[in-house]
Amino acid sequence: MNKHIESVTEAVKAKFDVLNTEIVRDTQAAVDLKPGDVHAALAFLKAQGFRQLSMLTCVDWLEDKEFQLVYLLFDWDKGVRLQMRARLDRDNPKFTTVTNIYPGAQYYERDVHEFFGVEFEGNPMSYKQLFLENWDDIPPMRKDFNSRAYSDKKFPVREYKKDFTKAGDGK
Amino acid sequence: MGEGIIEKDKKLKEGWEGISRFFRANSLWMLMYCTGCCAIELPQAMTSRYDMERLGMGPMATPRQADVLLVTGYLSVKTLRRVIYAYEQMSTPKYLVAFGPCPINGGIYYDAYAVINRLDQYLPVDVYIAGCMPKPEAVMNGFQDLIDGIKNKTADGWKRYRDNYEWYRKNQIESLGELRIKDEFHE
Question: The pTM is what?
């Protein structure tokens, strides 16, 4: 593993209450934090050289009843990436915005709010619609959303008189 | 005497329409709405290898000056709203060519929550070009079909849209909720 990423991970471990660490690949590691520590950790890492928030995304752990936010940071000088992960309660998904640390998180928070329903307090822009217009169901990237049923309900399906799916068996 | 004039007038009108159809069919300006991956087949069809120009077709910049709307690929709900805007802005006679299986029955996006299944529910389609994606040969063949359709009056989508406007509008509202675009560029 990259020496720089090892030392940064150790520094995060020493400073914060780290639940778990994981090596993703040679130049990338993942750190699981408590939700309360995320902002302090991101500010700390930004000062360490991770100037870019490459991505903020969300994972729906349906069986654990949790959402996992993943902040992917990138260091342009060393060429290493670091994931900061935190789990939220699925029934009441609320988190505080990180736009004061990384202003580029604006659109990612809007995206996560639209597709997972996670609310980012302190970022009024995140409540605006981004991709989906006039959405009228639960957020579509949640695991319990049935895409097929929604599509069939909303968009008319073409009826075929002949069953083409059985053709091609050599007869 | 009077009937003779009406008969003559009718013949003249038919003749005139035949002449306009001939010129329309041989001078088509396309508006390319590159919604999906089928748009990548247009450069080959347009440039020297297949040379769309020999059919009298060329690209046009704005909907108001274009004759043919090319829907190249899948249509998301968001895009369909803009396509309807573009189609209604075009002046008649106007034609719509749908590329690939996605506007026919949804294609590989048949179960997607943001992609429509059938374009002909919302806008009248004159020619479908099958293939995922259609080869440039198929694209040229489809354009030839469109030209033949204009010549023998079968490409009459714009008339169907005018006559069944309520039905189309009802389907559009059912799937889209509201046609009005509300994004940060229209605030």
Answer: 0.83
C-alpha–C-alpha distance, residues B159 and B162, integer Å: 5
ipTM of the complex: 0.80
Look at A147 and B110 and tell me if their CB atoms are within 8 Å. no
Distances (CA, A) of A12 to A51, A82, A84: 16, 11, 10
B120-172 confidence digits (pLDDT tens): 999 999 999 998 889 999 999 999 999 999 998 888 899 999 999 999 999 99
- Cβ atoms A53, A105 nearer than 8 A: yes
- Residue ranges and CATH numbers for the domains of chain B are 2-176 (3.40.50.12280)
Plot region of B89 (φ>0 → left; ψ -120 to 50 → alpha; else → beta) = alpha
A3-155, superfamily in CATH? Answer: NADH:ubiquinone oxidoreductase Nqo5 subunit (3.30.460.80)
Q: Is A136 an 8 Å CB contact of chain B? A: yes
Contact residues on chain A for B113, CB-CB shorter than 8 A: 137, 140, 145, 147, 150-151, 154
